[in-house]
Amino acid sequence: MKQTRPLPSVVEFNQILGVVNKAKHYSTSLDIFKQLCSLGVSVDYHTIQALVFSCCQLHRTNDAFAALGWNLKRAGPNIHDVHTFTQLLDGLFREDRIHKAQEFFNNLIKHNLCQPDLRMYNVMIHGLCYFGGHLITVKWVKERVDNALTLFNEMGSISPDLFTCNSLLLGLCQLCRWQEASMLLKESLDKGFSPDHETLSILLQSFLSEGNIHEAHLVLDMMHEKDIVPNLKSLAILVKTHCLHNDMTKARYFYDLILAIDLVPPIDTYNVLIESYCKHNLLDEAMLIYYQMSEKSFKPNELLFDTMIKRLFSAGRVGDGHKLLDDMRVQGHVLDSISYRSILMTLCVQDRLEDALSFFHSVGDSKLNSDTLVYTNLIEGAIRCGNINAARELFSAISVKGLKPINYTYTQLIRAFFKEGLLNDAKKLFSEMQESGCEPDDFTYRVLLRGYLQYNQYDDVAKLLHSMDGSGYYIDFVTTALLRDAIAARSLDTTMSMLIGKLAQTEEMDIPHFAA
Fold this sequence. Notes:
repeat; TPR-like_helical_dom_sf; 0% strand; Serine Threonine Protein Phosphatase 5, Tetratricopeptide repeat; mRNA binding; disordered C terminus; PPR_rpt; 28 helices
């Protein structure tokens, strides 16, 4: 068109600007305006309006104000009317410049620059009541909603529409001012307004955020009657709320509804569903949601991976657990040490040593396996399953790894040796423990004394009792009784009686005595 001579009229260019803005290509609209100016086209009211609108939509409201100044300086068309000012107010709210918008509006009224119409009031009220997920103080929220209510009451002969009421309803519900919200809703209905999708969505989300499930379902019934489908935000909140109330059937219903209307659930919806299914041990359902989540290229966070892997291994679904562990690595996440040890311990407690060892070996030489507690848990698991050879191998692997066994590791294996009748192995391991500088504790001595008594190693019993003397150790009641039985049977020298009483005394003193 710019090659045409003579140039087309400004009306035709305005039509082009209108089409471009309608398609939301606002930057293109600005470029066209610049070309018109360079071609010397005499722009009119509608051209400047298109310029202001584009700037405001692009969050360039300062440029929109500058355009008004430029137009005034060149004695252009008078565009200082309610329509232009409303666009500028809308731009300021879009940029979250709330104070500036209120100041600008007040100046318009104070200097009688225009008479506000319904659209201007709607922009102001909606801007004050809509917070867009920003973190702001309750005091600031209250101030904004109160200002919106003041404007609402100042509308005079201008009748509000449903959009006005919806905006106020949103603000009041966010402050939990239910009585005022209820009165506003009643007034709207009395004026003949029929609640629309926005009205019912506001009510639904507000009831759900307060945990009022019954009221929320009444709103859902009303939406169903009007053939209104809840929006994605409402459906996501419905899924989360029912998960929190352990109603997985309804949670799944609303999740399926999201898919049925061809929407993509937010990642939080996937997360809360999977966590809830895991909590209820519904692992097939959890895995299904996980695969659907992966298909949408969403990635679970570390916590979700930890939860799922724990549950899968605990339920004996080792294959799925390893698959998830591989996925976790691919996505750059690492199982934390607490979760790792927890899974190993769970498997060991369930006497599933093979699964525990499989999980252990799958981690390989990572940092997770550079922890004595991991080996100790596995050794304990091997002992529980009666696999003393596996326990030996794991114990040997500790030193190979450059780690040191802890007191509990030694004691558990010593006890296992006694249980298996491997007396010499038990004695040898205790000697190694002392040589390594790992101090025995009461539990270690208890295991040794009972083991020696079991195999009639009374010289070792006497030697051990003497080594305990004066070192702050004590003997529990059961071991004390066994020792006294040995003395009574003349298996243990009677001279040990006083020493036994001395060592047993520490525990007896720790037990409170109450007067009859």
